[in-house]
Amino acid sequence: MHETYSSTAIHARGIPLYTVIVHLSVVAPPAAALSVIVWLLTKRRLGLATIVTTDTRAAATIFAKITGARLLKQRGYSEGQPEPAADHADWATYAVMSVCAMFATAAATWFGEHRGMLTFTRVAKVLLVIYAAVSIITVVATGHGGAMLV
């Protein structure tokens, strides 16, 4: 079921860009989740590092979604009708949403900590743990769906 990439695919050093970005979006979620856990458990001032990590993760996931949509078009499909990649495309959408929620919540948590907003920060930290877990689940599901296509 291996298909060759179109000559119009975006490449980075001879490798299709989608492949490079997908690997970054798969490596970054555990790093972001780990930084969230360390930040929340150690009570160290790692908020800014966590925001940068989740921001990188969000950007990689969004770019993976964009390059994946382009790859669908090259193969004669669209985001509206992505067969046979429907499950993979759906999970990718969920991954983008969960990662963006994790990034926004990390930023809100950091902001709340620096403004002394105790109740807000506690709620944001609970949401941050939930979004971190959901983002890992959605990335694993997206990756599994993509692996089933190869």
UniProtKB/TrEMBL annotation:
Bilayer-crossing regions: 20-41, 91-111, 123-144
Keyword list, A-Z: Membrane, Transmembrane, Transmembrane helix
UniProt protein name: Uncharacterized protein
Organism lineage: Bacteria, Bacillati, Actinomycetota, Actinomycetes, Mycobacteriales
